[in-house]
Design brief:
Blueprint: E1 8-10, E2 16-17, E3 33-35, E4 68-69, H1 74-80, E5 84-85, E6 89-94, H2 100-113, E7 118-122, H3 127-136, E8 145-148, H4 152-160, E9 167-171, H5 188-205, E10 208-213, H6 226-230, E11 233-238, E12 245-253, E13 261-267, E14 270-273, H7 277-282, E15 292-299, E16 302-314, E17 322-325, H8 329-343, E18 350-356, H9 368-380, E19 388-390, E20 393-394, E21 400-401, H10 406-415, E22 420-424, E23 435-439, H11 442-449, H12 453-462
Parallel strand pairs: 6-10, 6-11, 7-8, 7-9, 9-10, 15-19, 17-18, 19-22, 22-23
Antiparallel strand pairs: 1-2, 1-3, 4-5, 11-12, 12-13, 13-14, 15-16, 16-18, 20-21
Helix pairs in contact: 9-11
């Protein structure tokens, strides 16, 4: 007799349905429902038994700060909050080939070379492949334990023998399966169960656990969202495969700052740390060109200078193009509407291209002023003032609003040789050796470039 199915489960969000349907109503994913048996119910009568008393404590209780173990990769430790924490679980996601396995192999190899016991368990690659990568990276002499396994039962039995390692990598969680479940590896029930058992082992034995996760086409870690709630830290590797720079970003961290970033450069010897990312993202500023403005932003706790590039061109199309790389396209549409309505600059018939140099993705609204400056610079065909940077948020009424950590932004720019800042009015900044140009409304920035609609049309006519 065929085994009875208890329903269908969405592989994107975990929602269950009694019968198959093409679209998940919970997360709007298409063709994500697979047939799975429901987990066993809680035994009846459990609420009648006598449980163990829970011990409470107070907020003024003395607790010790979690000790940090440096991995030897400075940027990696920075994103983690200062190093590895015993008993913590870290989930690392990113596009295929972005460098997830490489950064973890480098970190654990250096940790093992420092005398710590570390294990690297792969479910995707053979041991010979990992050894070959280690030789290319110059890490073949590190006493790192390697294994290839996909069975959760075998992995836990091996790690429980003797003294557990200080750090363990599972690459990847989608390849691990629990033999007490009928579903295939990578399904919602398998990923949830395997993650729960591995995290529980790490908490019980004081092991730092690294889980590598696949991502969907939208860039989110595949599998149920509950896995991200189980772990202590969620890291994303950002960047383009054809670009040599990589950004490691913490989107969740119980032991450090969220949105902290680490910058790496992909070389033939693996991922190399970038000690001064501001200089990296600025590029060559010796010969200024129109359409570029420097933005001083904050990524986590780190001030970072990045170049915003814009190109405004006449469009032969009925619907002009809006191409954005590294920023929010909806935010750009809002700024174009503000320039049109509040400043009288008709950009509706122009193609607009916007790019954040270096492959970084900027998410804070403080970049509004730099984006507008780059657009105005491209329209007027005149460069922004030399050694000048911008930051500030633009409101729908055309006002320029202040942003946080202004002093840190200014100090980072002054350290790199900038001497003038275009900022929102009323920040009350302490002198940092900079000339401040305070603006209250967007019209004042337009006057700085002396842009009007007739000048813009004449400039496009010359092109």
């Amino acid at each position: 007799m065929a085994k009875r199915s208890d329903g269908y489960q969405c592989q994107a969000c975990g929602a269950r349905y009694p019968k198959w349907q093409g679209k998940c109503d919970a997360c709007d994913a298409w063709n994500s429902l697979t047939e799975e048996t429901a987990p066993e119910a809680v035994p009846k009568g459990l609420n009648q038994g006598k449980g163990r008393t829970i011990a409470f404590t107070t907020l003024d209780a003395s607790v010790e700060e979690a000790p940090r173990i440096p991995s030897g990769v400075g940027e990696f430790d920075r994103v983690l909050g200062g190093g590895l924490v015993a008993g913590s679980a870290v989930l690392l996601g990113g596009d295929p080939g972005i460098g997830k396995s490489t950064i973890l192999l480098q970190a654990l190899a250096r940790l093992a070379a420092a005398g710590q016991s570390c294990a690297y368990i792969s479910g995707e690659e053979a041991t010979a492949q990992i050894v070959g990568r280690a030789r290319r990276l110059g890490l073949e002499n590190a006493p790192l334990k390697l294994a290839t396994a996909t069975s959760l039962r075998d992995i836990l039995a091996t790690l429980e023998e003797g003294e557990p390692p200080r750090a363990v990598v599972i690459d990847s969680i989608q390849t691990i399966y629990a033999d007490n479940l009928d579903s295939a590896p990578g399904t919602v029930s398998q990923v949830r169960t395997c993650s729960h058992e591995l995290v529980r082992f790490a908490k019980r034995r004081g092991v730092t656990l690294f889980l590598v996760g696949h991502v969907t086409k939208d860039g989110q870690i595949a599998g149920p969202r509950v896995v991200e709630h189980m772990v202590d830290t969620v890291l994303y590797f950002e960047g383009e495969r054809g670009h040599q720079f990589r950004i490691l970003r913490a989107v969740k961290n119980r032991f450090g700052a969220a949105d902290e970033i680490g910058v790496f450069e992909m070389t033939d010897r693996g991922l190399a740390e970038v000690s001064n990312p501001s200089a990296l993202f600025l590029g060559n500023r010796e010969n200024p060109v129109s359409g570029a403005a420097v933005f001083s932003g904050i990524e986590g706790s780190r001030p970072l200078l990045v170049e915003i590039q814009a190109l405004v061109a006449s469009s032969p199309l009925a619907t002009p193009r809006r191409a954005v790389v590294g920023w929010d396209s909806a935010r750009l549409a809002m700024l174009l509407a503000v320039l049109d309505t509040r400043c009288g600059l008709a950009l509706g018939g122009m193609d607009v291209y916007l790019n954040v140099a270096g492959g970084l993705r900027v998410q804070e609204p403080g970049a509004d002023l730099a984006v507008v400056a780059a657009l105005l610079s491209s329209m007027s065909d005149q460069p922004t003032p030399a050694r000048t940077f911008f930051f500030g948020e633009v409101g729908l009424s055309g006002e320029i609003r202040p942003v946080g950590q202004a002093e840190s932004r200014c100090r980072e720019a002054a350290k790199l040789g900038f001497d003038e800042a275009v900022v929102p009015a009323g920040l009350k900044l302490k002198p940092v050796g900079l000339k401040l140009r305070e603006l209250r409304r967007l019209d004042e920035l337009v006057q700085l470039f002396r842009v009007d609609e007739s000048d813009a049309r004449a400039a496009f006519g010359r092109r």
